[in-house]
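can u do me a favor
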């Protein structure tokens, strides 16, 4: 039973790592003028913007034209990964 739980937690950890990279790529793409009709840009927008909106609802994230929602999201995801790794180590 522990092996299954460890495998599930490692899979969740992998998904979180992939999502962190998606957030980083989406943040980097906003620095240029991306074509909003590009399928990659639309995918990145659809995957990250709902989470950004949820963060912005509770925390003011705009400071001088700079949006820190991606940074807050990455920090939260990294904290979650540390928590998952600690759970895995304790099993």
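np, heres the sequence
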């Amino acid at each position: 039973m522990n092996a299954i739980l460890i495998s599930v937690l490692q899979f969740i950890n992998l998904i979180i790592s992939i999502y962190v990279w998606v957030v980083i790529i989406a943040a980097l793409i906003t620095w240029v003028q991306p074509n909003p009709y590009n399928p990659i840009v639309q995918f990145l927008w659809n995957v990250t913007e709902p989470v950004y909106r949820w963060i912005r609802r509770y925390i003011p994230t705009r400071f001088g034209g700079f949006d820190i929602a991606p940074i807050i999201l990455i920090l939260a995801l990294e904290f979650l990964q540390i928590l998952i790794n600690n759970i895995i180590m304790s099993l």
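The mean pLDDT is 94. hope that helps!!
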